[in-house]
Amino acid sequence: MNISRYLKNIDSLIAAIIGFYVIYLYTKYSGVGISPDSVMYASTATNIQAHGTLLTFNKTPITFFPVFYPFFLGVIQFFSRIDPITAGAVINQFLFAAVIFTSGWIMSKFLSHSIIYKWLILAAIILSPGLLEIYTFLWSETLFTLEILFFIIAYAHYLKTRSIKSLVWVGVISAISCITRYAGVTIIGTGCLMLLLDNQLILKKRVLYIFLYGCISISLLVANLVLNRLSTGLSTGTREPSITPFFQNLYYCGTVFCDWGSLSKATYPFAALITSIILLALIGILIFKTIKGQINRYENVVIAFALVYGLFIVISASISRYERINSRLLSPMFIPLLIACTSWVPDVLKLIQAKAARYVLSGVAVILMLAFEYASYQTDWQRYDDESDYGVPGYSDDSWNKSEFVVYLKQHKNLFKPGVPIYTDANEAVYLFTGMSSELLPHKFFKADVQKFYANKHFYLIWFDNLYNTELVGLPDILKNKKLTKIGAAKEGEIYLCDEK
Predict the structure, then answer these.
(1) What sections of the protein cross the membrane (predicted)?
(2) Residue 450: predicted pLDDT
(3) Which of 42, 94, 254, 408 allows an S-S link to 490, with CB 3.0 to 4.6 Å?
C-alpha cells in the first residue's frame, strides 16, 4: 500500500478543519448571517421540502434567483428536519472546509508543485475577508464557489482522457452551476474557451466538443428560464437597465481588488487601471500558453475562469442593473484570481540557476505573502471583534434581534385584519420575524407598479425607519398621495393604515 498517496493532502485536510472552526467562531454568537436574499432562499427551501413547490415566503415563484441552491437547502432540511436558517452556520462550515480542501487538491496537481506555495495559498484562503464574508451568510455563492472548483477538477480530468464521458461530466457540473447562480454561464464560457484553445484537437473535433459541451451545460438553465417564463411571464424576474457605465464598473471592480490585496484607499484612484491590467495580463498569459503549446494544464483552467468571470461581471453590470460591484459579487473569482496571480512564482524561481539568488528571491516572495496574510488577519480580527459582540450583520444581528420595533411587531400581529394587503419597505424582515406575508413597496422605476399601488384604497404600511432604499417609493411620497393613520409605533418603525372611502 502506498501510504504517501493518502497522506499527500493531509495538509489540505488540516487547513479545511481550521476553516471549519473559523466559520464556527464567526457565527457562534447569532448564527448564520441573514440578508433579504437569504430569506428568499430559506423560505423557498422550506416550501420545496414541505410542499414540493418553488414558491418564496410571499407565495410567488422564485425567478430572480435560480432554483438549485434552495433545492440544495431543501434536501438538507428534508434529511435533518432543521430549517436552513438554523442549520445555515453548520452548512457553511462544511462548504468552506470543502472549498479549502478542494483548493489544496487542485494545487497539488500543478506541474511545478511547491509545498510552501500550497501552504501559503491555503492560509490566504482561510484568512480571506471576502470569503469569510460570504461563508458567514446564507448565500448561494457558498455553494457556487465549490462548484467552480469541481468544474476545474473535472475539466483537468477530461484533459487526461479527452473522452466523451469525461466531457459530459464537465457539462453536468457546468449545468448545475448555472442553476445555482445565473453567473454560472461563466463556467460554460470557460469550458468553451479552453476547448477552443486546445491545440491537441483538430478544429473539427473542437467544434463538435464545444457543441456537445454547450448543449449539456445550458440545458438546466434553459429549463429553469422556461419554467420561470411559464410561471410569471419573466425569465429572470424584473431587471432594470444599468446606471453605471463600463469604466465606472472597472473602477468598482478595482476597489474590490485593492481591498482583497490589503491595499490602502489611496490606491482607489488607480482602481480602473488595476482592473484593466489584471484582465489584460490574464489574456496575455492564456495567449502565451496557447502559443507555447502549454494551455492544457490545471492552472490554465483556473486562469481562464478568473478572466471570464471578471469580464462577465464588469460587462453585465454595464448592461443590467443590480447591486454595485462589491466583494460578494466578485467572491467566486477570489481563489482563481489568487492562484492566477501567484502560480507563476514557483515556476520562475525554479528557472534561476544561482542557488543564493533563488533562496533570496524565494524568501522575499514568502515575506510578501506573509505580510499580505497578516494584513488580512487584522481585517478579520476587527470584524470578529465586532461580530462576537453584535452578531453577523443583517437580520441576525442585535440591531434587528433586539429592535424595539421588531419586538412590537411580534407582539401586535392582531393589528392586522385578514384580507387587507400589507405593504412594507422590508417584506423579508416582516416574514422572518412575524411569519406574516407582505408586499414590497414598488420600485420607482416601474411606473405601472407605482400607479397600481396608489390605486389601493385599503392597506397597511409597515415602515422601518432604519432602512432607506431610495429605489423604492418612500414614506414621504406616500404621505403626499395617500391619507395614512398611524395605528402603532415603536422606536425605529411605525405601522400605518390607509382606509379611503
Answers:
(1) 12-29, 62-80, 87-107, 119-138, 143-160, 166-196, 208-227, 270-288, 300-319, 325-345, 357-377
(2) 92
(3) 408
Is residue 296 classed as helix, strand or coil in its secondary structure? coil
Segment 344-359 shows an average pLDDT of 83
309 burial class (0-12, 13-18, 19+ CB within 10 angstroms)?
A: buried
Report whether 309 contacts 277 (CB < 8 A). no
Torsion of CA 166, 170, 171, 176, to 10 degrees: 140
- In the chain, the amino acid numbered 267 is T
Q: Does the pTM exceed 0.90? A: yes
**Alpha helix (H) residue ranges in 162-243:** 164-178, 185-197, 203-232
Say if residues 155 and 194 touch (Cβ distance below 8 Å). yes
How many alpha carbons fall within 13 Å on the CB side of residue 233? 0
Residues 56-79 have a mean pLDDT of 93
Q: From the CB of residue 461, how many other CB atoms can be counted at a distance below 10 Å?
A: 23
The distance in angstroms from the start CA to the end CA of the chain is 85
What the block records as the C-alpha cell of 271 is: 482602481
Confidence bin at 1 (pLDDT 50/70/90): very low
Rg, C-alpha atoms of the chain: 25
Between strands 458-464 and 493-499, the pairing is: antiparallel
Contact between 323 and 64 under an 8 Å Cβ cutoff? The reply is: no
Q: What is the pLDDT of residues 313-334, one digit of tens each?
A: 999 999 988 889 999 999 999 9
Strand partners, 490: 493
Task: Give yes or no for residue 25 having a pLDDT over 90.
Answer: yes
Q: What is the pLDDT of residues 158-196, one digit of tens each?
A: 999 899 999 999 999 999 999 999 999 999 999 999 999
401, β-bridge pairs: none
Integer Cα distance of 298 and 404 in angstroms: 54
CA distance linking residue 35 with residue 488, whole number of Å? 25
Give SS3 for 359: helix
367-405 residue pLDDT tens: 999 999 999 999 999 999 988 888 899 899 998 988 999
**500 — phi, psi (to 5°)?**
-85, 135
Distance between CA atoms of 112 and 127, rounded to whole angstroms? 24
- The Cα diameter of the chain in Å comes to 90
The contacts of residue 290 (CB under 8 Å, 6+ apart) are: 197, 199
- Predicted pLDDT of residue 346: 84
